[in-house]
Amino acid sequence: MIELNNDSFNESVKHDKCVVDFFATYCGPCRALARFIDKLEKEYSEISFYKVNVEECCEVTEEFNVQSLPCVIFFSDGKEIARVVGNNQSKISEIIKSF
What is the pTM of this model? Predict the structure, then answer.
């Protein structure tokens, strides 16, 4: 999974469908969710998967009002279409299947 920064974020999410995992290195639930998202990335090759470290990408984190972790935001053609806060793997799977 590619880790985005403040400069690469907008260019990366403006095309097609993508999933962005906002995380922090100190966050245990974020680490658990990352393993799940890694599996999804292998299963859904038609979707782009990215991650954003909230400690290093303050601009993007603020722009998308990420206040709780983990936070997964789903984009289609650069627009946010869904968001899941917390390690809710079933909800994430449901959204990806409907993508």
Answer: 0.94
